[in-house]
Design goal:
Adenine-n6-DNA-methyltransferase TaqI, Chain A, domain 2, 3 domains, five-stranded mixed sheet, about 45% helix
Length: about 450
């Protein structure tokens, strides 16, 4: 690992090849046909999904096996490492229980002869660097896999236990700080979402709207009217467009699946295009039309809407409708997010695995509709809430990314040893600087 060797110059350490540091075994999947291997199992059996959902410190798994499924040398030991050596290459986790993992993982257990020289948590942090090496040292035959022969020949550092403990403590502090920061930012985001939901439902509710229109200084003698969506607008079903029809340039189009994954509340530009021939066959949406996906895997998401605010007409796919109205389109789209709309929708959706909502049913949905002037006032307020939520949503990944980069910087500094000679002074300086930075961040967090 040339990059690592260049960095390892903090202090003299003992170096051994990875194959001489660890007992190494492959994971496996017990036969799914043998029910005795799986029914009522209590032994954790880890997959990549467990790491994605739980993180890199594993205590239990979603799936379990029985003792009859164990073969060979038995379970992977507690405090050993599992490394993804195929498929999602370069991801590792530490086991906090005796367990097994599937065949995509290779297990690394500290050899008994070195158990008094290496701390499992130090090994866990050092595997961050091994992850990076694995990602760029891949063999491809029938499927990509880590060049395991080369990996086993790489050198692994064994500094003093005192140094290992110091490194683990500092990196634990950074990890805990990032975790706590993420939790706080996520809580702030959820609070803003709840606040937005409350005011959106309030501002589109019958009682609140009628209270506003009764204020003579606001709207005079206008009133809130109960009407149906089919009476104030027209639904048009999309057709034809498939993802294979996308082109780098051409006429603008939206596919129903993109409404869930690529678009927010409104859009002024599309992210996909198609050729003239395909475009000519598609149903079109005009500026201020609302585009609504009509199929989903769950009731909550079906009917998700995007207001088209661009300046030209666009084509759209099947499994979605456009809704054209002379009312305020953004007001209607906000109503489509409301609890009142959700309740009507839940009574009319069809399907189990794939949920659908139909035009004829939506046309009969009712809405308490205020005058256009009040619709615009509500839109202005809810637009501000949307902006606040966007700020919070943007803050979360930015802050976490900054702290992660900071962690990686000090991790690399603290795991930098001199493979040939040197003193501990560099390591002490790095540790002191990292500790100071962690304390500074913790103080800042507490003051906020």
């Amino acid at each position: 690992m040339t990059r690592i060797e260049d960095l390892l110059k903090n202090e003299p350490v003992e170096w051994k090849k990875i194959k001489d540091v660890f007992d190494i075994r492959n994971g496996y999947t017990p036969s799914k046909k043998n029910k005795a291997f799986w029914e009522n199992g209590d032994i954790p059996w880890f997959r990549m999904e467990d790491i994605r959902e739980q993180g890199k410190i594993l205590y239990d798994s979603k799936q379990h096996i029985t003792s009859s499924a164990i073969k060979g040398k038995g379970l992977f030991a507690k405090d050993s490492i599992i490394l993804a050596s195929t498929a999602t290459i370069g991801v590792h986790a530490i086991l906090k229980t005796d367990a097994l993992a599937n065949q995509r993982f290779t297990n690394f257990k500290i050899k008994d002869s070195l158990s008094d020289k290496l701390l499992p948590d130090f090994v866990f942090y050092y595997f961050d660097l091994i992850d990076e090496w694995c990602k760029v040292n891949v063999k491809v035959s029938s499927f990509p896999a880590v060049n395991m022969d080369a990996l086993l020949e790489q050198e692994f550092p064994i500094p003093s236990l005192e140094t290992q403990e110091k490194i683990v403590k500092i990196l634990d502090n950074f990890t805990n700080y990032v975790t706590e920061l993420q939790a706080e930012l996520q809580a702030e985001l959820q609070a803003r979402i709840k606040q937005y939901d409350y005011f959106r439902d309030l501002l589109t509710s019958q009682d609140y709207l009628e209270k506003l229109v009764k204020d003579p200084g606001r709207l005079g003698k206008q009133e809130v009217r109960l009407t149906r969506l089919g009476d104030i607008g027209q639904f048009t079903r999309g057709n034809g467009l498939q993802k294979k029809d996308f082109q780098p340039q051409g006429r603008p189009v939206i596919h129903y699946g993109q409404i869930y994954t690529k678009y927010g509340f409104s859009a002024e530009e599309t992210i996909s295009y198609t050729d003239e021939e395909t475009f000519s066959k598609l149903k079109k949406a005009k500026p201020n039309d609302i585009l609504m996906a009509t199929t989903s895997e769950n009731i909550e998401d079906v009917g998700k809407a995007v207001v088209w605010l661009g300046t030209e007409e666009i084509g759209f796919s099947g499994d979605m409708y456009s809704y054209r109205t002379s009312e305020n389109a953004k007001y209607l789209a906000y109503y489509f997010q409301s609890a009142a709309f959700q309740r009507q929708k839940e009574r009319k959706v069809t399907g189990t695995k794939l949920i659908r909502i139909h035009e004829n049913d939506m046309a009969k949905f009712t809405i308490h509709l205020p005058p256009l002037s009040l619709q615009q006032q509500v839109v202005q307020i809810l637009d501000k809430f949307q902006a606040l939520m966007a700020d919070a949503q943007g803050l979360l990944p930015r802050e976490i990314d900054q702290r992660q980069k900071q962690y990686e910087y000090y991790r690399d500094r603290l795991l930098t040893f001199n493979q040939v000679s040197g003193s501990k002074q560099a390591s002490k300086q790095a540790s002191k600087q990292a500790s100071k930075q962690a304390s500074k961040q913790a103080s800042k967090q507490a003051s906020n």
